[in-house]
């Protein structure tokens, strides 16, 4: 198993012997272990390892104790974490206090390895279920792009950030060309495949912090933080070229090609408003369709 495919676990304990025992056991069970000697160090690791979801945390630690660490996690990150508190404390009162403060499971030291192992497995199962729920709530199940609600949320967040930081924000509204013909000629399944291929091409051409979402049936919104009009246009054009070049194999037919048109608009330090920005994209997209499709049009700023 490569390190990339291993489940990550953060252990935080001020006792070096516990850390050593945990690291040895967890590594032999196939986990990728991150180790911290206090809550503050644990918090730093959380910031640099966003995929961490599973934690074994001591209660009494210097700087930030286990319960405070839990509160930070729950307050600052809106995805699910599974936290096992491994502590010298015992008894109902402590269990109630820990679990009322966001801890998911409670194990008293000294731990029994086999028991800890199955408790970690429970955590992994719950995290997997939560990830599946997150996916269905936030993503378009066909293409894996953000769904309409989420991409509009992201647009609002990025617009607010650009306003605050006085930075640029590029937005691209894509629409597949003559998509109805694809469905009518080859069936809905091929239409669905074309949507998936389209999205994978775009995802392969954007930066990790850019966001692609399905705005409507065959309309997709791409958010490009810190991109001026030249950069946003270039990214859209690069995607368009790759889409037009692709030959989609279809059984019983010659491979088909798909094309897309897009409108690009940019805001600078929150100007224009989201509403206007979107309108500009829409007008530019309409123009791209009118001019013959398979092209990108950069919106003309109209003032807000
Ligand atoms: N296969 C499939 N088709 C979809 C999906 N969502 C929307 N569509 C189809 O997309 C087509 C969009 O058609 P139109 O709005 O007429 O646009 P178009 O044919 O792409 O033409 P232009 O945009 O003018 O180039 C419709 O036939 C919808 O049924 C989907 O999830 N899967």
Automatic annotation (TrEMBL):
It comes from the Bacteria. SUPFAM superfamilies: CheY-like, Nucleotide cyclase. Residues 167-301 form the GGDEF domain. GO terms for biological process: cell adhesion involved in single-species biofilm formation; negative regulation of bacterial-type flagellum-dependent cell motility; phosphorelay signal transduction system. Residues 8-124 form the Response regulatory domain. Its cofactor is Mg(2+). One of its GO terms (cellular component) is plasma membrane. Keywords: Phosphoprotein. Its EC number is 2.7.7.65. It catalyses: 2 GTP = 3',3'-c-di-GMP + 2 diphosphate. GO terms for molecular function: diguanylate cyclase activity. The modification 4-aspartylphosphate is found at residue 58. This is diguanylate cyclase. It comes from Catenovulum agarivorans DS-2.
């Amino acid at each position: 198993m490569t390190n990339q495919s291993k489940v990550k676990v953060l252990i935080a304990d001020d006792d070096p012997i516990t850390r050593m025992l945990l690291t040895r056991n967890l590594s032999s069970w196939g986990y990728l272990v991150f180790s911290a000697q206090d809550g503050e160090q644990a918090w730093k690791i959380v910031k640099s390892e966003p995929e961490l979801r599973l934690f074994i945390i001591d209660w009494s630690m210097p700087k930030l104790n286990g319960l405070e660490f839990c509160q930070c996690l729950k307050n600052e990150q809106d995805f699910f974490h599974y936290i096992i508190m491994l502590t010298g404390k015992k008894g109902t009162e402590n269990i109630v206090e820990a679990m009322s403060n966001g801890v998911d499971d409670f194990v008293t030291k000294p731990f029994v390895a086999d028991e800890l192992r199955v408790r970690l497995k429970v955590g992994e199962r719950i995290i997997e279920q939560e990830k599946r729920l997150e996916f269905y709530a936030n993503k378009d199940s066909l293409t894996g792009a953000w769904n309409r609600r989420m991409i509009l949320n992201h647009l609002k967040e990025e617009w607010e950030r650009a306003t605050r930081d006085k930075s640029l924000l590029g937005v691209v509204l894509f629409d597949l060309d003559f998509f109805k013909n694809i469905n009518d000629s080859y069936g809905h399944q091929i239409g669905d495949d074309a949507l998936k291929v389209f999205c994978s091409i775009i995802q392969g051409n954007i930066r990790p912090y850019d966001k692609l979402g399905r705005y409507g049936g065959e309309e997709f919104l791409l958010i490009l933080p810190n991109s001026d009009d030249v950069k946003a246009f270039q990214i859209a054009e690069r995607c368009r070229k790759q889409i037009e070049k692709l030959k989609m194999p279809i059984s019983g037919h010659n491979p088909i090609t798909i094309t897309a048109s897009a409108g690009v608009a940019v805001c600078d330090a929150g100007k224009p408003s989201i509403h206007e920005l979107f309108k500009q994209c829409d007008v530019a997209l309409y123009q791209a369709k009118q001019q013959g499709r398979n092209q990108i049009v950069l919106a003309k700023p109209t003032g807000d």
